[in-house]
Amino acid sequence: xxxxxxxxxxxxxxxxxxxxxxxxxxxxxxxxxxxxxxxxxxxxxxxxxxxxxxxxxxxxxxxxxxxxxxxxxxxxxxxxxxxxxxxxxxxxxxxxxxxxxxxxxxxxxxxxxxxxxxxxxxxxxxxxxxxxxxxxxxxxxxxxxxxxxxxxxxxxxxxxxxxxxxxxxxxxxxxxxxxxxxxxxxxxxxxxxxxxxxxxxxxxxxxxxxxxxxxxxxxxxxxxxxxxxxxxxxxxxxxxxxxxxxxxxxxxxxxxxxxxxxxxxxxxxxxxxxxxxxxxxxxxxxxxxxxxxxxxxxxxxxxxxxxxxxxxxxxxxxxxxxxxxxxxxxxxxx
Length: 334
Ligand code: ACO
Fold this sequence. Notes:
single chain; alpha/beta; five-stranded mixed β-sheet; 13 strands; 31% helix; 23% strand; binds acetyl coenzyme *A
């Protein structure tokens, strides 16, 4: 028997934070050539929240504090802070260190991970490894301020994204619980990365190589080949969810709840249909938040927890995809 898959983890607390500015499709239609009808029918999104130029780490801290409160845990009991984002305020220091300082988690090691929208799935897998390597209590926060990267003149991408943060407190399960992961990447060319935000450094090396030819123009903000991402996303979610079930020895029917990455309702619906999953088992909150990248899943967990819908023994399948092109899924028995 594969014992490794029974080395599970438990969620002892959840928290989430959405910034106060709620932006409806009609608000975007005031500044762009778009409409509520187009956005809802093509994406399933009605609202999203904007952080209005405030730093990302402040949203992360709010979600972290709420998760600690719900876990009835002091910050000083946390021995590891794992943080996921694609939209940090600083290249360094890492955001986990800023959170550590503000919440006074003086006994915590800190690490940021960046795997775009797959960040929560990748981070869960990493957190499990850390818990079985000797850490006892992990605060895992995902917070995204996508408005920092969004090109508000590009109607095909800017209507999709929002800002927000989610957090969970994780510990080793005391009894055998299932945990299995499947993580993959469909590589992209650095000259044409499909979905990206290129850091624009001011070049200042005094020994610049004049013969080096820069690749074609990357564009200033978030760039996305929407159709390419759409096609990849459906295949990636379907492959990852069925592969992780196969690895675990479960069928789609054995899963109690699916929490997919919330990028576009049509991507979710197509993948769910291909996998034969009953739609009532799939949690969807894209209508309210838009795409908040790696924060989608912990925000979903907090909403489910507050609604009393997370029950001990449930098997949850998380499936995500994002820039990279990264993708993957985790099955976790809670
Ligand atoms: N409002 C009105 N019209 C629009 C808008 C808009 N906001 N955006 C595009 N259009 C127009 C286009 O210009 C085009 O017009 P044309 O036919 O006159 O040329 C028409 O609508 C159709 O455009 P398409 O690109 O074919 O629209 P599509 O149905 O493919 O939807 C979308 C576009 C929503 C971007 C879709 O391709 C998609 O969701 N892709 C995946 C995006 C995604 O998941 N990104 C993030 C993933 S990873 C991460 O989360 C970071």
